[in-house]
Write a structure and sequence with these properties.
This is Radical SAM enzyme, TIGR01210 family. GO terms for molecular function: catalytic activity; iron-sulfur cluster binding. The protein contains 7 helices and 8 strands; from the N terminus they run ββαβαβαβααβαβαβ. The protein is of the alpha/beta class.
Amino acid sequence: MDRYNKITKKFPREIVLLKAYPCKWGRCRFCDYIEDNSMHEQEIFRVNQEVLSHVTGEFGVLEVIDSASCFELPKSSLDLIKEVIDKKDIKKLFLESHWIYRHRLQEMREFFEIPILFKIGVETFDNDFRERILNKNANFQTPQQVAKYFDSPCIMVGMQGQTKEMIRKDIAFARRYFSHATINVYTNNTTCIKRDENLIKWFQEEFKSLDQNPYIEVLWQNTDFGVGD
C-alpha cells in the first residue's frame, strides 16, 4: 500500500493516505476502501506517524485522505498532522469529509488554523442514482446545497446504470459551482457496482479536454494520485 506521494500537476501538493477508525456510514454500495480501517488506535498512530514522517513541506500544501472522513481520524493522529503543519510550514490543507459532517467542518478549520479545501465524495449530483443505487446517505438535492459547505466535489464516472446525460450534468455543475473538482473513472472492486466500459470509452473521447482544465483533476486510474493499492 503506497501512502505518500507528491502531486506535481495542476494543484502541486504532498498527499498522504492515513489509517482511520471505520467510516461512520460505511454502507456505500461501490466502496470497499473501508477494509483499510482499524479499531486499534496504537496501530493507526504507528502507521500514520511513519507516513507523515515523509512530508517535507516542499509545496506548502498537504492533502490528507483516509478510507473514511477526516473526522474518523483519532485525536492522536490529528495532533500528528498539526505538528507536521507547524514544523514544515504548511500553508494549505486538503481534507475530505462525508456529507453527514457538513455542520462540523469549522471544527477542523479552527483546529488546524490554516486554510482548508474541503472535498466531498458526491459521486453524482443525480439524487436518485446516488441514494437508491449507490446508497451514499447524502440526500442533498442541488449542487448549490453542497457548495454551501464544501469546496470540491469528487465525481465518479463509468458505473453501470449511469447515463451520458447524468455525467454531462455532473461535470457542468462541478465547473459552475466549485473552484476545484476531482473526476474518478470507476475501477471494478469487490462490490456489486461494476464498470461500464462503453460509457468510459465515450467519456474519454467526450471529455479528454478536462486534462487541460486547471481546476479539475481526472483520475483515469484510482491510484493516479500515487497512493492506494
